[in-house]
Amino acid sequence: MSYITTYTGKHFNPAQPDREKIDIRDIAHALPMICRGNGHVKTFFSVGQHCIHCALEAEARGYSRRLILACLLHDASECYLSDVPRPVKSGMPGYKAVEERLLEQVYIKYLGSALTEQEERLVKQVDNDMLYYDMLNLLNERFDQEPPVMATVFSYEVLPFEQVEGKYLELFERYRHVGGIKEETKMGMRLSIEGMENEMTFDSEHFTVHYCRECANLVERIAGALRGNMQRIMGFFRLDKLDRKIPVVLYSDTDAYVAHIEECGQRYYDWMIADTFDGRIHILSLEACRSRSSHAGMDEEEYTRLIVHEFVHICQQQVEPNCYGCIWFWEALATNLAGQEHAPVEILCNREELMFHYQELPNAYAVSYLLGKYMLEHMSPQQIYDYIRRPAQLWEDTEKILQAATLP
């Protein structure tokens, strides 16, 4: 047999890695199950906890979002290959080649590109510094060197693997939006968008619309929709101000939009027409949307409401970037706050399908709309805000919400 079966049921060949089959859920689940040091430690300590420590240390050292995510993912290949001790690994050139190729594919998928030599050096430095304290705390062994100066205080408490898995996914969601960002400056994001020839801009205090000439007739309407809804939506999320000016990018070229999705390390679906994967609003032009069978009848009102929908996601990301298992809730708020109405549908999914297979659900957005409508009508603003700030509580209550919303 030339493959392993992963936690999510994929058949994966580590020697010939298919990037499409690399899944953060498999990585986050497997690494907390693997013990550091091949189990030769005084108490269980997982590779997942080690990676979390490395990511938090990189964050405390002021490293970029890309490097923090790289530190979180630096042992992701062990999800598929297991943890081989360094002395053994150094004598196995074939294994090292497989590991390096696999890890490169992980980085390309979730960072947009492989690490540069300088980035590899910085990630390795954090890993080695953390190894010093892993050895000291788990084996009472001290290397013959000066103790590395660390920016964080970390614990070697034995944690339930579910807790480590949840923390790993939380950090991943916090720092994942790096693939499409080429450069960040103190003045905000500098755009680098392929396929945006003859780009024009409409600038305002809170947002900048980037568009091609053929989209010019809608720009004033888009700006008006954002201005007319901005304060109301920010008030819902209790935001006094945005953390930066928001770019809104309109694509008349579908291929350019698909390239953006893939740059962000996301899987592209034919129904995709808008997103905020990298913290900006990206959307196909109205004509490009109408070329899809799923949006053939879209009018200007529906189109501008979709952009307001994406602005809701921007605000939600600013309050709490972790949406793992909560995409249905994000869409529940966005569809309702943007005033997008959906025809009634029967909610037939269970909690697991709603939380972890949302994009595969038939009528997913209509389901979210109905759940959001129920929550806004039956829950207090404080309770909904608490769910925004505390995704773990929403995870616990999703079954209860689902049952209540589907009662006759």
Give a brief outline of the structure.
By secondary structure, the chain is α/β, with parallel strands linked by helices. It has helices at 24-30, 47-60, 65-73, 78-81, 86-89, 93-111, 117-139, 161-175, 216-236, 254-263, 286-290, 300-319, 327-337, 351-356, 364-378, 381-389, 391-405; strands at residues 4-5, 11-12, 184-185, 188-189, 200-203, 207-211, 246-251, 274-275, 281-284.
Can you put this structure into words, describing what you see?
- The protein has 408 residues and is α/β, with parallel strands linked by helices.
- It is 51% helix and 7% strand.
- The chain contains 17 helices and nine strands.
- The chain has helices at 24-30, 47-60, 65-73, 78-81, 86-89, 93-111, 117-139, 161-175, 216-236, 254-263, 286-290, 300-319, 327-337, 351-356, 364-378, 381-389, 391-405, and strands spanning 4-5, 11-12, 184-185, 188-189, 200-203, 207-211, 246-251, 274-275, 281-284.
- It has a five-stranded mixed β-sheet. A two-stranded antiparallel sheet has the order 1-2.
- Helix 13 (327-337) crosses helix 15 (364-378).
- The longest helix is centred in the first third of the chain and has 23 residues, at 117-139.
- It is globular.
- It starts with a strand and ends with a helix.
- Residues 178-196 have low confidence and may be disordered.
